[in-house]
């Protein structure tokens, strides 16, 4: 991960971004296949189409910065350095998963990398992220919190409470709204009276920023600016990034509420393809990029093999992870 502030992106850095975006893409394609084969239980929300956001944002952070995400969390976890084996094993409900198979797809967690989930309640985790930012300020730590969520979350109470206190106390936090246009099957115009969500930031006295998010370098540069502001004591930023998920909301959503033409139009701005084209323009050969793709394929095949073979989650771990309060006998 690069330090925020140095926004020049070298071809080497762009190549690393390409590798990570391709890793996320291939991880999720194989996760979708494993889901269809019945190897993954519960929900599976894919990030395909949004990869530039996780990768550009992770590059703008220091390793000790805090990150919070929704259930659409595989890309963020991998971009922050979670091994693909640990992420895939978690999806498969295995003991070697990052949450020892207790959380599954929606609850990836990696305290070592300061990745604090993986949350299922829309908008709920935004308040937790504000709490982490408050803790950093209170303990005079030089740490920034980044909190990701969808546009649907900006209508939820927890979001507004967190924004309110973050603005008031100038907390070192960056709110990143990944506006992929739909909350499950509901387009934003049916839930929200405004088109520009940064207007909501104005109400809480914080800086707003808004841009299209298929270019990983653009994401990185905007995130660097916001992270620097937060680290420099200038308070929070709310960023709305326009994006699009190429798949349904989750694996059980055939996405009938939008036309194939609409999806195809957005696929013209596929972030992985855009980065590949930029690298070719910069003089990197197709062969070199094919080699990266082949290495990524091997990594993901290995992650699937690892998840297949790993032991299942242990019931005892579940029991040990539950807090139990014992009350004195009545009378
Ligand atoms: C409080 C709450 N209400 C409803 C749900 C059901 N639900 C799960 S995801 C979702 C849509 C959220 O859309 P958005 O915030 O735009 O994020 P996206 O899924 O598009 O990334 C809803 C309504 C929930 N998990 N939590």
Briefly characterize the structure.
The chain has helices spanning 11-36, 51-59, 74-79, 84-91, 124-138, 157-169, 198-202, 216-231, 260-267, 271-281, 286-309, 315-320, and strands spanning 66-70, 115-119, 145-150, 173-179, 182-183, 186-187, 207-212, 237-242. The chain is α/β, with parallel strands linked by helices and 331 residues long. The structure holds thiamine diphosphate (TPP).
Write the CATH architecture name: 3-Layer(aba) Sandwich
Strand order of the largest sheet: 2-1-3-4-8-7
Largest sheet: 6 strands, parallel
**What is the ordering of alpha helices and beta strands?**
HHEHHEHEHEEEHEHEHHHH
Overall domain count: 1
Summed up, the helix count is: 12
Highest CATH level, the class: Alpha Beta
The N- and C-terminal alpha carbons lie at a distance of 59 Å
- How large, in whole angstroms, is the Cα Rg? 20 Å
Fraction of helical residues? 40-55%
Q: How many strand segments?
A: 8
Computed structural class: alpha/beta
CATH superfamily heading = Thiamin diphosphate (ThDP)-binding fold, Pyr/PP domains
Ligand roster: thiamine diphosphate
Predict the CATH topology.
Rossmann fold
Task: Provide an overview of this structure.
By secondary structure, the chain is α/β, with parallel strands linked by helices. The protein has one domain (about 10-320): Rossmann fold. The chain has 12 helices and 8 strands. It has helices at about 10-35, 50-60, 75-80, 85-90, 125-140, 155-170, 200, 215-230, 260-265, 270-280, 285-310, 315-320, and strands at about 65-70, 115-120, 145-150, 175-180, 180-185, 185, 205-210, 235-240. A 6-stranded parallel sheet has the order 2-1-3-4-8-7, with helices on both faces. The model is unreliable at about 1-5 (pLDDT under 50). The structure holds thiamine diphosphate (TPP). The site of thiamine diphosphate has 15 residues, from strand 3 and strand 5.
């Amino acid at each position: 991960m690069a330090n925020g502030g140095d926004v020049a992106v070298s071809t080497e850095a762009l190549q690393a971004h390409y590798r990570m975006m391709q890793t996320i893409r291939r991880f999720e394609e194989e996760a979708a296949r494993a889901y269809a084969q019945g190897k993954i239980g519960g929900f599976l929300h894919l990030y395909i189409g949004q990869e530039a956001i996780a990768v550009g944002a992770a590059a703008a952070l220091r390793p000790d910065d805090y990150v919070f995400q929704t259930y659409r969390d595989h890309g963020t976890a991998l971009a922050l350095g979670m091994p693909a084996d640990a992420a895939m094993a978690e999806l498969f409900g295995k003991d070697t998963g990052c949450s020892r198979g207790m959380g599954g797809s929606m609850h990836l967690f990696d305290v070592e990398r300061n990745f604090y989930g993986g949350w299922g309640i829309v908008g709920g985790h935004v308040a937790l992220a504000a709490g982490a930012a408050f803790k950093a300020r209170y303990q005079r730590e030089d740490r920034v919190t980044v909190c990701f969520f969808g546009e649907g979350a900006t209508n939820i109470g927890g979001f507004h409470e967190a924004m309110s206190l973050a603005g008031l106390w100038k907390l070192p936090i960056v709110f990143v709204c990944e506006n992929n246009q739909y909350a499950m099957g509901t387009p934003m115009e049916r839930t929200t009276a405004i088109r520009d969500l940064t207007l909501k930031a104005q109400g809480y006295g914080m800086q707003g920023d808004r841009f299209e998010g298929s270019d990983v370098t653009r994401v990185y540069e905007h995130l660097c600016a916001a992270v620097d502001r937060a680290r420099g004591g200038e308070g929070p930023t709310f960023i709305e990034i326009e994006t699009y998920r190429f798949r349904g909301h989750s694996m059980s959503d055939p996405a009938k509420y939008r036309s194939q033409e609409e999806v195809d139009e957005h696929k013209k701005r596929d972030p992985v393809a855009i980065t590949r084209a930029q690298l070719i323009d910069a003089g990197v050969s197709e062969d070199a990029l094919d080699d990266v793709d082949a290495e990524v394929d091997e990594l993901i095949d290995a992650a699937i093999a690892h998840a297949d073979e790993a032991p299942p989650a242990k019931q005892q771990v579940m029991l040990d992870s539950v807090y139990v309060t014992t009350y004195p006998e009545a009378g």
